[in-house]
Every structure is written in structure tokens, then in C-alpha cells.
Specification:
six-stranded antiparallel beta sheet; alpha+beta; 246 residues; five-stranded antiparallel beta sheet; globular; 23% helix; 3 helices
């Protein structure tokens, strides 16, 4: 599962995500990996919440299909590809839960950003949903508070992530359905021609979490900024799906 925040503007987008990957139970930590990947050839970035393999497979397909040249082309085939990938995974693993995938990028020769969402939550079938400029969202949604505005400063983003994480820990301790959040908090700025990644901070239980140890509620300290320009996905895909997009 995933903590994901995004803000969409006319000429850019910011995506903020944790890096903790859990087992199928949604609670047991397995590894850390980025949940936001760039496809420089298509001038876009994509993010996944839910089943990581679905996002990884879509990333591989879009990156390999030379007939697609931009985010609008990717959007045209994404719903069919996602449905086919989901069917194949279900045939292999059974119930895989729900998945949501996001694309943020620029159409060919355009300065205006296009953003899309595809989900299988609540009976969804990965239909394309265009995200309008000006939208801010956080997933999972806050349970005990409301947001009056999107976080702007670095410290505000960290504070919101920690507050959402504590809510999910409360749910987990109560035995309710919850999202495991951890690892590092990464921010990705999507602009025309570039995707820049910055590590906002590392959760204090980073070294212990994979062994299910550590105080998850300790206040995290911001890490020194680490900025890089993405050139490829950093996720290993055991199998490359290049099937039909029906």
C-alpha cells in the first residue's frame, strides 16, 4: 500500500510518496522501492498505489511501445493494458486487491500538463479519469481532520505525511483495515522535459522496519535534500508484459 500526495498545475505536477512495499496482507514490510517512475522518452512520470506489479508492468509496456510518443498516447491505451495485466496477475496469484495508477506528463509540443487516474477500487475497471489543473489529493484520505489547503513548504508536507501515518497506525492497532506507510518520503517535480526527485526525509524506523521493530511514532527528522534527474525506472520487473491492450 502507499501514501501518495499530488498537486497538479497547468505547467507542472508534484507527486509525494513513501517507499515501503508490504506483503499481500498489507502490513508486513517486504522492501523499499520507488513508487513513482519516469519515462523520459514520453515526457511523463507515473505513480502506483496498491499492487506494485501492475504499475511495473504498465511502465515496461509503455516504455517499450515506440508507437506511443507522449502522455496522451499512453492514456489512450492505458485502460486496456491495465485490465489485461490485472487479468494475468489474477490468473497467477488469485486475489490481488485494488490498484490505482496515475500518469503526469506533457503532450507532444505542448507546455500544458495532462494528468490521468485509473483505478480498480470500488469496482472500477481502470477507466481513464482526467485530473484537472488545480487539484490536490492525498491517499489514504485523512480520517480525523480536514485540509484547508495543499501543503506548500517542505515541513508542511512532512507533517501531513506523519499525521496520515499516525492515523493509519491507530487503525492498524485497532485491527481495522489500514495502509502501512514507511521507508522514505520522496517528492517528484514533473516539468516539461524533466522529472526531478528529492528525498524529503527518512522515517526513523527505516533500518528496523523490515524486521518489524522500531518506534513508528517517533518524530522523523528531515534528511538533507538529495536531488537527481530520473532517467529510468528503478524497479526490477521479473516478467515483462508485452501483451495486447484489449
Amino acid at each position: 500500500m502507499t501514501l501518495l500526495m499530488y498537486t497538479v498545475w497547468q505547467d507542472a505536477a508534484e507527486i509525494v510518496s513513501d517507499t515501503l512495499v508490504t506483503a499481500a496482507d498489507g502490513r508486513t514490510p517486504v522492501r523499499y522501492q520507488s513508487k513513482v517512475w519516469a519515462i523520459p522518452r514520453l515526457n511523463l512520470a507515473m505513480a502506483t498505489t496498491g499492487t506494485a506489479e501492475i504499475g511495473a508492468a504498465l511502465h515496461a509496456q509503455l516504455n517499450a511501445d515506440l508507437a506511443i510518443v507522449d502522455v496522451e498516447g499512453a492514456n489512450a491505451t492505458a485502460p486496456g493494458r491495465l485490465r489485461a495485466i490485472e487479468r494475468e496477475l489474477i490468473s497467477i496469484a488469485g486475489d490481488i486487491g485494488s490498484t490505482t495508477v496515475y500518469l503526469f506528463g506533457f503532450p507532444h509540443e505542448s507546455e500544458l500538463l495532462s494528468a490521468f487516474k485509473y483505478t480498480s477500487m470500488d469496482g472500477g475497471t481502470f477507466e481513464s479519469q482526467r485530473i484537472p489543473a488545480g487539484e490536490f489529493a492525498v491517499k489514504p484520505k485523512p480520517q480525523t481532520f480536514t485540509l484547508s489547503s495543499a501543503p506548500d513548504a517542505r515541513e508542511e508536507k512532512i507533517a501531513l505525511a506523519c499525521r496520515v501515518r499516525d492515523e493509519q497506525l491507530d487503525l492498524m492497532e485497532a485491527g481495522a483495515k489500514a495502509v502501512a506507510i514507511g521507508g522514505e518520503l520522496m517528492a517528484f517535480l514533473v516539468e516539461n522535459g524533466s522529472v526531478q526527485a528529492e528525498r524529503l526525509f527518512r522515517f526513523p524506523d527505516y533500518d528496523e522496519a523490515l524486521a518489524m521493530r522500531g518506534d513508528l511514532r517517533e518524530t522523523p527528522q528531515p534528511a538533507a535534500p538529495v536531488t537527481s534527474r530520473s532517467t529510468a525506472a528503478d524497479v526490477a520487473v521479473e516478467r515483462l508484459w508485452l501483451g495486447s491492450a484489449t
